[in-house]
Amino acid sequence: MDRNAEFKRWKAQGLSKADLSRKGSVDEDVVELVQLLNGREQYFTTSSCAGRIILLDGNINGFEVQKQNCCWLLVTHKPCVKDDVIVALKKANGDAILKFEPLILHVQCRQLQDAQILAIRSTHGLEVPLSHKGKLMVTEEYIDFLLKIANQKMEENKKRIERFYNCLQHALEKETITNSHPKEKIKDKNNSSYTHQKKRNPEACGKCIEENDKELENDDDPGISVTIFPEDY
């Protein structure tokens, strides 16, 4: 069996598995993005989160929260209000941490070339301790201030998801056109003057795609984890 067939079988197995997330389904804000990737033969998603505000209660290992050892006091994929956090904090017995996490998307890729189109980075997060050993260490006014920041990040995250979706869609369309005309691609490489003139033409149909490719590459969007199909699978 060739690698393409093996990946196709691996993808079918992955997408047929039950959703083991706490919610049990794909978040509304990333449904179209997940469908876009899973609709391409060279990708499939293994997990995703559109972005969330979390209040965790547990032990802090240095500055990192070990979520597997924590109690989830509150989790929401929508803007959060102070009263909900205050009520949830009353259940805290350890070190409560307020977090905002942007888009998380894990993607399996057929080969390295497929993965390169998804490589982006982000620092669009928030993590602040609120209590220690069950004792609240900050004021309610400060909690309200933090939630305004977290909610702003949530709104910005939704805009970034939409922008990333549009850029990725353009990049994939461009890749499809390129792969479907390999002879023309070689011809263009051998005719540098023609290629130069085409790029300078303001009416060229590829201009929008080229600009979106640069935005996809350089923009500080939410992070994506990609895994390449292993050679020894």
From TrEMBL:
<dbReference type="InterPro" id="IPR036602">
    <property type="entry name" value="tRNA_yW-synthesising-like_sf"/>
</dbReference>
<feature type="region of interest" description="Disordered">
    <location>
        <begin position="178"/>
        <end position="233"/>
    </location>
</feature>
<dbReference type="GO" id="GO:0032259">
    <property type="term" value="P:methylation"/>
</dbReference>
<dbReference type="GO" id="GO:0008168">
    <property type="term" value="F:methyltransferase activity"/>
</dbReference>
<comment type="function">
    <text>Probable S-adenosyl-L-methionine-dependent methyltransferase that acts as a component of the wybutosine biosynthesis pathway. Wybutosine is a hyper modified guanosine with a tricyclic base found at the 3'-position adjacent to the anticodon of eukaryotic phenylalanine tRNA.</text>
</comment>
<feature type="compositionally biased region" description="Basic and acidic residues">
    <location>
        <begin position="178"/>
        <end position="190"/>
    </location>
</feature>
<comment type="similarity">
    <text>Belongs to the TYW3 family.</text>
</comment>
<keyword id="KW-0949">S-adenosyl-L-methionine</keyword>
<dbReference type="GO" id="GO:0008033">
    <property type="term" value="P:tRNA processing"/>
</dbReference>
<keyword id="KW-0808">Transferase</keyword>
<protein>
    <recommendedName>
        <fullName>tRNA wybutosine-synthesizing protein 3 homolog</fullName>
        <ecNumber>2.1.1.282</ecNumber>
    </recommendedName>
</protein>
<feature type="domain" description="tRNA wybutosine-synthesizing protein">
    <location>
        <begin position="16"/>
        <end position="118"/>
    </location>
</feature>
<dbReference type="Pfam" id="PF02676">
    <property type="entry name" value="TYW3"/>
</dbReference>
<comment type="pathway">
    <text>tRNA modification; wybutosine-tRNA(Phe) biosynthesis.</text>
</comment>
<dbReference type="InterPro" id="IPR003827">
    <property type="entry name" value="tRNA_yW-synthesising"/>
</dbReference>
<keyword id="KW-0489">Methyltransferase</keyword>
<feature type="compositionally biased region" description="Acidic residues">
    <location>
        <begin position="212"/>
        <end position="222"/>
    </location>
</feature>
<keyword id="KW-0819">tRNA processing</keyword>
